[in-house]
Amino acid sequence: MVDVVQWNLGPLPRKERVFRGQDPLQMNFSDEQLRQRFRFGRESIEFISDLLRDDLQSATARCTALSVEEQVMMSLRFFASGSHLHVIGDTMGHDKATVSRVLTKFTDALIAKRDQFIKWPCTPDKLSEAKNGFFEKAGFPNVIGCVDGTHVRIQAPADDEPSFVNRKGFHSVNVQGICDHNCLFTNVSANWPGSCHDAHVFKTSAVGIHLQNQYTSIEQGAVLGDSGYPCRPFLLTPFRQPIEQREHNFNKAHITTRCTIERTFGIWKQRFRLLKTGVSITNKYCSYKLLFQLSIEDMNKCFAN
């Protein structure tokens, strides 16, 4: 028989817990330095923290629990940089799993409040403000918004993968946006894969259905779109082959006014680099993540220092 030797080594020593977190708001960052890292100044970060405090406040009384401000800034750093979770964790002093949980919690909390910042102009005062704002740009009357679509790169989804390949050859979500004269989004549709045409996205969107069913006169205003959209009483597009001078003048004013939405998309993507590097999530969550970006962008413009 083989003798069995039992080693009595005693209990294994537990690895010491190391808490590395730090609150960037407590550091001596200037507003300019905060904007470079988080795309927001101190006052705006504090506003977002107060807005989401009830949703992000930890129920535990432990001294190591993440503060609301830490969760907000960790999430903003991720969306601003477009970096990997473990890089954000190393930068902020937390584990990758912690960053992932914070992002999910923060995003869900902010999405629930998106209607406070993305609003379609319905009241006479809002409609008049939008019409006057657009008219001052190029003299185009009765415009209440400009519409266009942009492709946001995503990771190839497991379900229905071919439909997400756009005409440029990469996987994306076709995000429709309508903005006002101040480059603020008033409507967003991020429900369609990259292969869908802009006209189809508009036709099936909530605002497209609303205008189709409720529009009665030009006094309600009109939306400007490019030649990829069908011309409707509520959706004005440029002349494809202008001949007369008045048609050329129409197209010139149309282009000058409509480029507001292209400029808005440019600001949006430049502000949040994640939209350029690619959203590494499945299509199940794409609409929510993108709506989050739009809500954040509106808040940044409304409450910037």
TrEMBL record:
Its main location: cytoplasm. Pfam families: DDE_Tnp_4. One of its GO terms (molecular function) is metal ion binding. The keyword NADP does not apply. It comes from the Eukaryota. InterPro entries: HARBI1-like (IPR045249), HARBI1_animal (IPR026103), HARBI1_dom (IPR027806). GO terms for cellular component: cytoplasm; nucleus. Its cofactor is a divalent metal cation. Residues 147-282 form the DDE Tnp4 domain. Keywords: Cytoplasm, Hydrolase, Metal-binding, Nuclease, Nucleus. The keyword Chloroplast does not apply. It is found in: Cytoplasm; Nucleus. Transposase-derived protein that may have nuclease activity. Does not have transposase activity. Belongs to the HARBI1 family. This is Putative nuclease HARBI1. It comes from Mytilus edulis.
